[in-house]
Amino acid sequence: MLAEKIQTLARKYADEFIQVRHHLHAHPELSYQEFATSTFVQEKLTEIGIPFQVISETGVVAIIEGKNPSKRVLALRADMDALPIQEENEVPYRSVNIGVMHACGHDVHTTLLLGAAKILTELKDEWEGTLKLIFQPGEEKNPGGASYMIRDGVLENPSPQGIIALHVHPGLDFGKLSFRKGRVMASADEIYITIKSKGGHAAAPHLTADTVLIAAQLVVSLQQIISRNNNPISPSVLSICSIQGGNATNVIPSEVKMMGTFRAMDEAWRYKAHELIRKQATGLVEGMGAELDLHIDVGYPTVDNDPAFTELVWKQAATWMGAQNVLETEMRMGAEDFGYYSQQIPGCFFRIGVRNEEKGIIHQVHTPHFNIDERAIEKGIGVMAWLGATVFPHSVNGSVG
């Protein structure tokens, strides 16, 4: 049976791809700078015998054809970039690039897709259709590598009928997967505010607009946009995370800068909130006698898992892992540029457990001690290969999409 063959090959190649993960982990590269990573992926695809092309500078797109290549087209996606974090793990494969670390598991995602590619190529006479493998740069930084790859044609020639991606989950035990239908991750926009006045002496606040006081009022005021305008049952977050201004005890600064993030699960509310932020900030700042510069850097959209397609992928995963090992995942206010793909075609973004409390593998992503239970490599390449071989998007409601 196909499942048994995939399991056998996943076990056979597990150690090889653990070493692949070690190489990637030790040589992380920041968003849009993944040149060595991209070259490594290309070399591995060449070794396996899979044709590919490079797009969006460092992105790699590969094609595997099984029997009856035109029967379906399914995309599998992995991201490749790392974060500006200094690793604190004491492991042999610790990052050699100072201040850069694979602290979000993208080394794992790339490894799993390469491992699945090897299995799917070896068994290509035993499954039908065409698989498009997407190795994507820049997931961690606006505007998101997915937006560039879509712009450059990654969803064309051939056009996938659905797309699947996974993400490591440090809160989920090894051996488990988790899925969610519908909205699963939030949109993410960056807010940049500068409050300006002529500045002045702290003992004479009546002679200038107090930019620090205005900033303090604005931080509190902006929270009312969420608490009094958003539907309470629709998650949304506005956080001002940086206030910079002044360097003396007796000088009212001429300028205060603020930065923050806005998250939402509803695209209509998202853009309504942008207008409310602009209106409220302008009215408050100008009403208190200062000038305002405000920029909202529109980032990733919500990740909205197509319900029917996700149900299909979920069932196939349960067949592979056992229903008791496939759970419903929580909604998260974190963001992922997979949302760009899910706006275009049916998408399923799910999570793979990497946690092991006995081994002390408990740290969250985006922290200097993040790591995984590496038994997840065998599980991950197996499940990605299984889904690649058996998920037929056109069976959703009897038609593509």
Q: What is the gyration radius calculated from CA atoms?
A: 24 Å
| CATH homologous group name of the largest domain | Zn peptidases
Helical run tally:
9
Structural class: alpha/beta
Examine the coordinates and then state which fold CATH places here, giving the name of the CATH topology of the largest domain: Aminopeptidase
From the spread of the alpha carbons, the general shape counts as: elongated
By DSSP, the count of extended strands is 16
User: How would you write the strand order of the largest sheet?
Assistant: 1-2-4-3-5-16-6-15
CATH architecture tag of the largest domain: 3-Layer(aba) Sandwich
Largest sheet: 8 strands, mixed
Q: Could you tell me the strand content as a percent range? A: 15-25%
Domain count, please report it. 2
Helix content: 25-40%
Oligomeric organization of the protein chains = single chain
**End-to-end C-alpha gap:** 29 Å
SSE series = HHEEEHEHEEEEEHEEEHEEHEHEH
CATH hierarchy, class of the largest domain:
Alpha Beta
Please provide a written account of the structure.
- The protein is α/β, with parallel strands linked by helices and 401 residues long.
- It has two domains: 282 residues, Zn peptidases (Aminopeptidase, 3-Layer(aba) Sandwich); 111 residues, Alpha-Beta Plaits (2-Layer Sandwich), CATH 3.30.70.
- 35% of the residues lie in helices and 25% in strands.
- It has nine helices and 16 strands.
- The strands form four sheets. An eight-stranded mixed beta sheet has the order 1-2-4-3-5-16-6-15, sandwiched between helices. It has a four-stranded antiparallel beta sheet with strand order 10-12-8-13, with helices on one face.
- α1 runs antiparallel to α3.
- The longest helix is centred in the first third of the chain and has 25 residues.
